[in-house]
Automatic annotation (TrEMBL), chain A:
Composition bias, Low complexity: 1-10
Protein name in the entry: DUF4350 domain-containing protein
Keywords, ordered alphabetically: Membrane, Transmembrane, Transmembrane helix
Transmembrane domains' residue ranges: 33-55
Listed InterPro entries: DUF4350 (IPR025646)
DUF4350 domain boundaries: 63-244
Region: Disordered, residue numbers: 1-27
From TrEMBL, chain B:
Stored Pfam families: DUF58 (PF01882)
Protein name: DUF58 domain-containing protein
Residues in DUF58 domain copies: 194-370
Keywords: Membrane, Transmembrane, Transmembrane helix
Membrane spanning residue stretches: 29-48
InterPro entries cross-referenced by the UniProt entry: DUF58
Organism per entry: Brachybacterium saurashtrense
């Protein structure tokens, strides 16, 4: 065999295989710089959050330095030597109460009946004090029967300590209550006390008191007495610090939704039989197995090394669009006319380069057109409108057909 | 090797449901999960290790595009157990393998064959990218998958659709050769025989010396010279990637090259082929007359257009290395204004000095269709643009003809015949 099929192709084949290999392309696409940038970004975010100091924001949160937080009160209490312990579960708060400490409940309205009962029992069992911030009627009814809410203060008001306040004033002569719009939890509540054991202080109008106390339960009519934003008003700070720092230790109880006692007993799921959970888990497990089994793919997805192919008319169509956009009717007419003239000259046996006059002279005996009509058709006469261009194309066609006949 | 559960394993897991309903405890759940895992693992262990199966391939070597060819995969099970296998032979899609997957049962110490039939839909090389064998356990709960090594590759050859035009052109060639009497003496002819003068013979071809020896007037007859050299150069650059109708320009170019090769083989000429663009490329050089067509079909099968511009200077160097003075050079490249700027014109002028030069171009039939559009304003503009493009092409082919080349420009369905006809015309004119 003298066949000598020069195999200069392998070099090219290899190059092609290299570019076609999907795994290599994917690996090259993932730049190490991207990973590094991500790591740096995560580290920077962590550092910034540490530098800023992490705190939980919310109404009367002890760590929050925002307007609605209570960091000011808590920090001053700490400086005064009061140990402040933050609790989020009712059980812990009840434990502190039973041990005889002071417990501040920042949001007593969010507590359920069970939680309030637990607090009440702890209060009865020990000799602690329970400070409630803006409790409502239902909340109070669990803990004491002698304090009831009677009204609200909508306008910014200053309430003075009456002469019959006694210890309840805690050294404050006047309290400032912000108006409804500045307030944290709506207008401040006023409480009426009944009986001899219960008494109120900082009365406003018709006998309602902003601070009321009975048998270890103290109701504060406004949450703003403790917030960072308003604790500095009038003698609010005096009341807050003296009331909460009395025992030397304070439990700051912020009710939270993930408290196990906050769960409302029997839910819809509770009606399900006890085998429902394990069965559901087993069904999920089976479904996962089925998905894994069905998703099993035997081998890789195969790529097709398709050769390139190009539409060759793009250039012509693009030029046509350009001509149309530019309204280049004369240019279009010129190319149509010259093509028709070339074909006619070929038909009539003229040289390609022959002049228009020669072509017209040769055409004249074969067609019925007037000579000036022919000159308009084939000569460089202007084409004013689009309709004229279309008509010119048709006329040229007709002329060529006439000569062909 | 991978172990994976089958859908049946998920169904088997459902048997655990009544147990859980009867004893709804978490430890029962854990126990059942462990039990299920054990059963599936035992089934996987009982399955034949797919790596121990021996796979041999009987793949076809080549097939003409449009035809169907068969191959076989032979699976041997050297173990004593029955192997329940699923085999996937992952060829690229255009290889046209009828069924990529096959499920079969190979008893121990036996061999089974998987029949495969390929109907490729793309010219070029086709490969099996992966061959995977999965075996199932006796209960069908788990399968083990492994890759087998049995490389498969075949070439889908150019269909050579222009073959049907060969007999008529060979007929014409024989006529030219037979009409030696009216054949003029020329550059590309050789002495054939002496015969008596008949009316109409060229007086210049009278052999006076022979006439002197005999009583009648004797003329020399000439026939086209045999054993000439034809070099076909196919441009595989970006312009050859243009899709004209069903196939690309390159496909038609190869069709024309093959028809010319077959015809030149009949005429007793030697044919070489070069594929040029910017990088070293496939070529068929020095094949014998009997094998040249086969070599050319095999070599061109895997050539695809590349999106580069042809380096004509480099091509000219290669051509002058590969051809003798006077051999016919056929350039198959589109005649386009853009190609002129690529330097084809000076190269063609230089080549035409030393060789008879034919430039064969495959024209775009869509251009003619666009040029005939008269419906609305848009189609008239398109027609104008198409006429302009055609005028440019005409200008380029006139420039090439002035440079001494013979230009053949025809749409794909006529291009191979047109090239063959121009070769025959050169033969008849004695220029070759």
């Amino acid at each position: 065999m003298s066949a000598d099929t020069t195999a200069a192709a392998p070099a090219r084949d290899e190059a092609r295989a290299g570019t076609a290999s999907p795994s290599r392309g994917a690996r090259e696409g993932r730049s190490p710089w991207l990973v590094a940038a991500l790591v740096v970004a995560v580290l920077a975010a962590m550092l910034i959050s540490v530098a800023r100091g992490y705190y939980r924001d919310g109404p009367l949160e002890p760590d929050a330095p925002t307007g609605q937080g209570a960091k000011a009160v808590v920090q001053v209490l700490g400086d005064l030597g009061v140990e402040v312990e933050v609790d989020r579960h009712t059980a812990d708060a009840a434990e502190s109460l039973r041990a005889g400490g002071t417990v501040l409940v920042t949001a007593p309205r969010e507590l359920s009946g069970a939680q309030l009962t637990a607090l009440d029992e702890a209060l009865r069992a020990g000799d602690g004090r329970l400070v409630l911030v803006q409790p409502d009627f239902v909340t109070l009814s669990y803990l004491t029967s002698l304090i009831t809410p009677v009204g609200t203060v909508e306008e910014p008001t200053r309430l003075g300590a009456g002469p019959d306040c006694g210890d309840l004033a805690h050294g404050a002569r006047e309290l400032a209550v912000p108006g409804e719009e500045d307030s944290l939890r709506g207008p401040a509540s006023l409480y009426r006390t009944a009986g001899d054991d219960a008494h109120g202080c900082f009365t406003a109008g018709a006998g309602g008191a902003l601070v009321a106390s009975h048998d270890g339960v103290i109701a504060l009519g406004s949450a703003d007495l403790l917030t960072n934003a308003h604790v500095g008003g009038a003698d609010n700070a005096a009341l807050a610090l003296n009331l909460l720092g009395q025992d030397g230790e304070l439990t700051w109880y912020v009710p939270s939704a993930n408290d196990p006692m906050a769960a409302t007993g029997q839910t819809l799921l509770g009606h399900l039989p006890d085998w429902a959970g394990p069965t559901l888990l087993w069904v999920l497990l089976t479904a996962t197995i089925a998905l894994v089994a069905l998703a099993h793919r035997l081998g890789p997805v195969v790529q097709e090394p398709l050769p390139v192919s190009v539409r060759p008319q793009e250039l012509v169509l693009g030029r046509a669009r350009l001509l149309q956009q530019a309204n280049a009717r004369d240019a279009a007419a010129r190319s149509l006319r010259s093509a028709a003239a070339a074909r006619l000259a070929h038909r009539l046996g003229l040289r390609r380069e022959s002049s228009l006059d020669a072509l017209l002279a040769a055409l004249a005996p074969h067609v019925e057109h007037e000579p000036h009509r022919l000159r308009d058709l084939l000569g460089p006469s202007p084409v004013p409108t689009d309709q004229d261009l279309v008509r010119l194309a048709h006329d040229l066609d007709r002329l060529e057909k006439e000569i062909d006949r | 090797m991978r172990i994976s559960p089958t859908p049946r394993a998920a169904l088997v897991a459902l048997f655990g449901l009544p147990v859980i309903v009867l004893w709804p405890h978490w430890w029962v759940l854990v126990l059942l999960a462990v039990l299920w895992l054990l059963v599936v693992l035992v089934d996987a262990l009982l399955a034949v290790d797919p790596r121990r199966l021996r796979v041999r391939r009987e793949a076809p070597a080549q097939v003409r595009l449009g035809g169907t060819v068969t191959g076989r995969l032979l699976l041997t099970n050297p173990t004593g157990r029955v192997a329940r296998c699923t085999v996937r032979d992952a060829w690229n899609p255009t290889a046209g393998l009828a069924a990529q997957r096959a499920s079969l049962r190979v008893p121990g110490q036996e061999r089974r064959a998987i029949a495969q039939s390929f109907t490729p839909t793309r010219r070029g090389e086709h490969r099996s990218r992966a061959l995977l064998v999965a075996t199932r356990g006796p209960w069908g709960l788990a399968r083990r998958t492994a890759t087998a090594t049995a490389p498969g590759r075949f070439l889908a050859l150019h269909p050579f659709g222009a073959r049907r035009h060969l007999p008529s052109r060979v007929q014409r060639l024989r006529e030219i050769e037979g009409l030696s009497a009216i054949h003029q003496r020329g550059q590309g002819t050789e002495f054939d025989s002496l015969r008596d003068f008949v009316d109409g013979d060229d007086v210049r071809s009278i052999d006076w010396r022979a006439t002197a020896r005999r009583r009648s007037v004797v003329v020399r007859t000439w026939r086209p010279e045999r054993d000439r050299h034809v070099l076909i150069v196919v441009d595989t650059s970006r312009t050859s990637a243009g899709r004209l109708g069903e196939a690309t320009r390159l496909d038609t170019a190869f069709d024309a090259a093959l028809l010319l090769t077959a015809l030149a083989g009949q005429a007793g000429d030697r044919v070489d082929l070069l594929c040029v663009d910017r990088i070293p490329h496939v070529s068929v050089l020095g094949s014998t007359r009997t094998t040249v067509l086969h070599d050319m079909v095999a070599a061109t099968a895997a050539v695809d257009p590349a999106l580069v511009e042809t380096d004509w200077e480099r091509a000219a160097r290669t051509i002058s290395e590969r051809s003798r003075r006077g051999s016919l050079v056929v350039l198959i490249t589109p005649v386009e204004a853009a190609a002129m700027h690529g330097g084809l014109l000076p190269v063609a002028a230089r080549l035409a000095k030393d060789h008879p030069l034919v430039i064969a171009s495959v024209a775009d039939p869509a251009l003619e269709q666009i040029a005939g559009g008269r419906g609305d304003l848009e189609s008239v503009y398109r027609a104008a643009a198409a006429e302009q493009a055609r005028a440019e092409r005409d200008g380029v082919s006139r420039a090439l003809e002035r440079a001494g080349a013979h230009v053949v420009d025809a749409p794909p369905d006529r291009a191979p015949q047109a090239l063959a006809d121009s070769y025959l015309a050169l033969k008849a004119a004695g220029r070759l």
